[in-house]
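Lab notebook page, bench 4
Experiment: in silico fold of construct C2
Operator: M.H.
Input chain length: 276 residues
Purpose: comparison with the prior construct
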Amino acid sequence: MKQVMQAEKLDQENRLKERMALIRHKLIVMSGKGGVGKTSVAVNLSYALALSHKKVGLLDTDLHGPNIAKMLGIEKETLGSSADGIEPVRVLPELKAVSLAFTAQNPDTPIIWRGPLKATAIKQLIGEVNWGTLDYLIIDSPPGTGDEPLSVCQLIPEIGGAVIVTTPQDISILDARKSVLFARQLHIPVIGIIENMSGFICPHCHKETAIFKKGGGEKAALELGVPFLGRIPFDAEQVELADRGVPFVSFRKDTPSAKAFMEIQKGIEDFLEAHK
C-alpha cells in the first residue's frame, strides 16, 4: 500500500511539473491584508494581458473568499472535465479561469477547511487543471502569508515573481512589507509594489483627493529596494463595474485608473521578460 501511495504521489508531482512547463510566466498577486483590491488587480491584469493577445490563465486560490467569478461576470459557469483533467472556464478566447466558486452549488456555503485540506485542494487546482500552453498564469492569493500562498510558492516550480498590492495608509504598507519579506524568504523575485486606491477622482469636478493618503507604496518600495509599479487612483465607477462583472480595463480605457493600469501591466511584462 505504501509503495502504491508513493507511486501515485510521484505521478501527481510529475504531472504538475509537465503542466507548469507549458506556462512561460507564472506570477502570484499578494497583499499583506484584505480590502486593498488585490483580486481586482489580478482580474484586470489577466484581462488586459488577454486583450493584448497573450494566452492567460487566472487561478483563484482564495479558497474562503473566491471572488474572481463575480468580477469576471461568470458566476454561473462550472468547471468541465476531460481525459486531460479539469477543464478551466473560458472567459475570453485568450483567457481561462479556475476557482472553487465554479464548483459551489450555493455561493453562501463557507469553506471550513484546515491547512492540509487547503494544501491538497491547491495542489489539485494547479496539477490537475488542463491549462495547456500559456504565456501567463496569474495566481490570485488570499491576503497574508499563510497556507495558501505558501502552498502555491512551494508547489509551482520557477515562479516568475510576486506582485504586492497595498493601499497608501501605514497599516497596509506595514503588512505589504511582510509580503515582500515572505517572497524573499522563498527566493521568489518581487516584481514590484502597486499602490491601489491612491487618491479618489471626483466624477463631477474630476479633482483628486487623497482619501487614504498618497505615496506610501512608493516609499515602501524605495526602502525595501523593490520596483514601484505605479499608483491606481480610486474611481467610483470601478465599484459598479466590479459588481457587474466587467473589468474596468476593458470598459473604460480612457480613465486615469485604466491608463495607470496599462503602465503597470507594461512594467510587469518588462520585468518578467528581463528575468526569464
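Observations: The chain has one domain: 2-274. The first strand starts at residue 23 and ends at 30.
Next step: discuss at group meeting.
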